Amino acid sequence: MSKATAFYNARLIDPATDYDGPGGLICEKGLITDCGADLSSAPSGDFDSVDCQGHVLAPGLIDMRVFVGEPGSEHKETLKSASESAAAGGVTTLIVMPDTDPVIDEAALVDFIERRARDTAIVNVHPMGALTKGMKGEAMTEMALLKEAGALAFTDPRRTIMNAQVMRRLLEYASGIDALVVLHTEDPNLAGPGCMNEGELSARLGLIGIPREAETLLVRRDLTLLDLTQTAGHFSQISCAASLSVIADAKAKNVPVTCAVSAQHLALNENDIATYRTFFKTQPPLRSEEDRLAMIEGLKDGTIDVVTSSHDPRGPEDKRLPFAEAAFGAVGLETLLPVLLELVHNDHISLVQALRAVTQRPAEILGLEAGRLAAGTPADLVLIDLNTPYKFDAETLKSKSKNSPYDGRLFQGKAIRTYVAGARVA
Amino acid sequence: MTSQNDTSTDRPQTGADAFPHRHLLGIQGLTPPQIEHLLDLAETYVDLSRQVEKKTSHLKGRTLINLFFEASTRTQASFELAGKRLGADTMNMSVKTSSVSKGETLIDTAVTLNAMRPDILIVRHASSGAVDLLAQKVDCAVVNAGDGQNEHPTQALLDALTIRRRFGKIAGLTVAICGDILHSRVARSNLYLLNAMGARVRLIAPPTLLPPQAHRLGAEVFHDMREGIKGCDIVMMLRLQNERMNGSFMPSTREYFHLYGLDLEKLDCAKDDAVVMHPGPMNRGVEIDSAVADHPTRSLIQEQVEMGVAVRMAVLDTLSRRLDNGGPRR
User: Fold this and answer.
1) Which residues from chain A sit within 8 angstroms of residue B132, using beta carbons?
2) Which residue of A lies nearest to B215 if distances are taken between CA atoms?
3) Which of A3, A104, B114, B218 is least buried, going by the fewest C-beta atoms within 10 A?
4) Smallest Cα distance from A317 to chain B, Å
C-alpha cells in the first residue's frame, strides 16, 4: 500500500473553478483527495511529498484528436510511443482516431484498442469509433455497441459524409443513444486535389489551393442539420474566420455545437510553407495570418471550445516527396502545451483560458471525470515550468515520427512532470 | 560581343558574381543583371549555332543527365543538343525506363543518380517544387526544365531573348499572355521575368483557367481577348491541353477557339507590328489559327525554338563555371 502524495508550494490552476493561485494537492490511490490554497506549505503528515517550487500544477491535458498507427501502421506510431510522447508533453488523456487499418468500426476493435492501451500505454487512451462502416459514408456503425465497449464519440475523422440524408440519420440515431458526433468538414469536391490554402501564395507556388469555402460550406450544412435534429455535434477542426462566425451565430441560437482548432492553426500560417516544406502540409491547410488571428480571438471569446494537437505521425516515405504528393499531417503531442504557452506569453490569452481548452472543455464535451482539480477525480496532473526558454529540436521527440513543423522554433515553457492516476509517467 | 571559337580560353570572362547561383530553379530569385548576363551569353551561342562548326569544348568531360519525369520532346532535345554543342556527355533518362515506375521515391532516384557523379542534372517533374526538393539532395548543379505549375525558367529566358532580338529591348513593351494560365509554368516564369525586366504583362483567360488572386501577381487580367490584346506588342499564346476541354474547365474546343483562339482578325486588335509567340507544341485550330502560326513576319515561333538551344547553352555554360573541378565530394 503506497503512501499518499502531497504536492505543495505550487501555483494551482484549475480552469473548472477559475482558480489560479498558490496551493497544494493531495492524491491517494490514483485520485485527488484534497486540493486548495491551504495546502501550499510543506505537509506535516506521512506523505511522499513533491515540492513544486512555485511551478504551475494543473490538470493533465486531454487531447481530442490523435492519430496513432496502431493497428496497421505501427512503424509510424504505436499506442506505446504515442503515450510516451503524450506524457512528455503533459498530455494525460489521448482520444485516438478510428481510421486505423482496420477501421475501428466494430466493438471488438474498440476492445482491442482498450486492451493494447492498458498493456502498453502510460497515459489514458480512449478511442473514438467510426461513424460509418469502413468510413465509407454510407451505413452507420453499431454505435450503441461501440459506445458500450468504450468508444467515447463517433467520427469519420478525415472523410466528409457528403450525403445529407445519411448525415441526418446518423445525427438522429446518435441523439437517441446520447452519443457525440464529431464532424469533419471539408467538401472533397471543392477541395479537389488541393494541397494548401487557396490564394495568392498557392498561385505563386503553382500549387492547387483548397478554398476556405470548402470548409464553411460543410460547417453551414452541418449546423443546419444539428439544428434540425437537435443533436450534439463537435467540429473537429476549424481553420478559417468565416467558419467561426457562423459557429458563433449558431451558438447564440442555442444549436448544440462545439468546435476545436488544432495548435498548428494557432501558431502557423500558410507563409510557413515557404519553399514547399511538406511538414507544414496539414489538413485543413494552414490559412492566412488573418485566419490565424481569428482562431486566437475565437479561443479567447469562447467560440472555440477545444485545442487539439491533431497529432498525425508521418514517416519519410510520406513526407520526403514533392509537396503535392506528400501526405497531410504533423506530429504535435509534445508541442501542444508549448504552443499554448506561446500564446500566453504573447498576451493573446490568459493561462487559465489556454488550459481550459485542453482540460475542462474536452472533459465536459466527452463526459470525462478528468480535466479538473477536484476531490474524487483522477489524479492526472501536469507540472509546468512557464518560463524557461529553449530551442525545440524535433530529434528529441518521443514520437516514432519526427514530422514536426516546429523544429528549431524558440519556445518558452513546457511540461516538466506528468502524472497519470497519481503515478509519475514523465 | 566576343566571337566564339572552338576554344575554352576566349569565353567572355565575367566575374564569378555575374551569376552567383549553383542551380537554375526558377526566374524568381534572379535579378535583372543576372537575366541580362544569361541573355548576353546566349547571343554568342546564337552566332555559334549558325556556323558550320557548332561545337565548343567548354563542357568537355562534363556529364549531363536529362531526367524527365514528364514526357517532353522539344525541351529534352533542346537541352541535349545544347549539352552536345558544348562538348558534354549527355544522357537521357525518362520515367518509363527508370525505377521511379517501380515505386522508388524522387529523392532516392536523385541520390542514386548523384552517386554516378553527373555535373549537371536537367530535371522535369509533374509536381510543383519537385525540382527544388531534388536540388537539395544532390551535389551537382540542377536546371529546372519545368516543375508542375510552378516554373519553366529556360522557356522564359528563350522568350526574353526572342523578344529582345526583335524589339531591341524588353522594358516598356506590353505583353499579353493568353490561354491556360492556371496550369502553366510557362506563364508564371514569363510573368516574373517580364515584370523584372520592366515590361507590362496582361493575362487573358476565362476565369476557370486563371489562378486565384491572379490580379495580385503583377499583371492586368482580362477575360475578353480582343480587349486584352488591344495595344499589345506581343501576344504570347499558351498550349491548351485537351483534357481541360471536356467540360470541366471549358465546354469545348470550338467554344474555346471562338473566344480565345488567335486568328488574324483578333490579332488586328494588337499593335500593327505586334508579334505572336507560342511555347509549343501548338494545337492548330484550338488556340491558334494556322494563318497566324505560320505568318512570315509576325510569328516568332520558329525563332523561339532556335533561341531555346542558345539559351540552354548559356545556362549550362554559366552553371558549369561554378562547378568544382573534381576531387572528393561530401
Assistant:
1) 275-276
2) A200
3) A3
4) 8
Query: Which of B23, B69, B105, B189 best tests the A interface by mutation, with the highest count of A CBs <10 A?
Result: B105
Is B105 in contact with B111 (CB distance < 8 Å)?
no
Cell numbers of A384, please?
509546468
Tell me what ipTM this predicted complex has: 0.83
Residue of B106, B125, B133 best to disrupt the A interface, most CBs of A under 10 A: B133
Q: Could you give the CA distance from residue A418 to residue A195 in angstroms, rounded to a whole number?
A: 36
HSE of A401, CA atoms in CB hemisphere, 13 A: 30
Distance of alpha carbon B157 from alpha carbon B160, whole angstroms: 5
CB contacts < 8 A (A, B): 69
Contact A202 B211 (CB under 8 A): yes
Say which amino acid occupies B188. Answer: R
Strands A306-308 and A257-262, how do they pair?
parallel
In CATH terms, A60-366 corresponds, of 3.20.20.140, 1.10.3720.10, 3.30.70.20, 3.10.20.70, to 3.20.20.140
Asked if residues A421 and A30 have their Cβ atoms less than 8 Å apart, the reply is yes
Pairing outcome for strands A423-424 and B63-68: unpaired
Place of cell 571559337: B5
Please list the rounded mean pLDDT of every run of 10 residues in chain B (330 residues): 43 66 95 96 96 92 93 92 96 69 74 92 93 92 95 98 97 97 95 97 96 92 96 95 74 91 95 95 91 96 96 96 62
Domain boundaries, chain A: 60-366
Query: Where do we find the cell 516574373?
Result: B192
Residues in B 95-114 with any Cβ partner in A closer than 8 A: 105-107
* Strands, sheet with B275-277, edge to edge from the N-terminal-most edge strand: B220-222, B200-204, B174-178, B234-237, B275-277
